[in-house]
Design brief:
155 residues, alpha+beta, GMP Synthetase, Chain A, domain 3, 3-stranded mixed sheet, 59% helix
Length: 155
């Protein structure tokens, strides 16, 4: 018999004598059972707490990276236009020269701007949440307005 087997047998025998004692064994078994149950309940609570924490972190990451693309966009047109005016730098720089209008999430841009500003404005407007499409009627000072070209060619 090896040293390990002897040691294991001694521990099992001592535990048996401790828990199977005719006078105090019943109380010891009850206390050991209560302590094991308490540890198990604490472990359950800790796992649930960590699960809630990680769920909240995941939800935060989802919102931070706007991964929830299937979420309904319930912004009205006025809110979308206000967001465009406040969030798109190119629109703020062209204040007074660009008219921004929205109908059902489709944005119409009208006005006279430089060619580089027109591209930046359209790209910025498309990036705003709630924008479903952009109708670009912006033009440079050398061009006629796109919505006026058909009338001028008919006349």
């Amino acid at each position: 018999m090896g040293r390990t087997s002897f040691l294991a047998g001694t521990v099992v025998g001592a535990a048996g004598a401790y828990f199977l004692d005719p006078k105090l064994g019943r109380g010891r078994r009850a206390r050991a059972s209560d302590m094991a149950g308490a540890r198990f309940r604490r472990l359950e609570h800790e796992v649930a707490r960590k699960r809630r924490y990680l769920g909240g972190r995941l939800e935060g990451v989802t919102h931070a990276f706007d991964l929830d693309t299937d979420a309904p966009r319930d912004m009205d047109d006025r809110t979308i236009v206000d967001r465009i005016r406040s969030e798109v730098d190119a629109v703020r720089r062209a204040e007074g020269r660009v008219l921004v209008d929205a109908v059902d999430g489709i944005i119409t841009l009208r006005g006279q701007v430089d060619a580089s500003d027109a591209e930046a404005i359209e790209r910025g407007v498309r990036s705003v949440p709630g924008v479903r499409g952009v109708r670009d009627l912006l033009h440079t000072p050398a061009q006629p307005a796109p919505n006026k070209q058909q009338a001028r060619s008919a006349g």
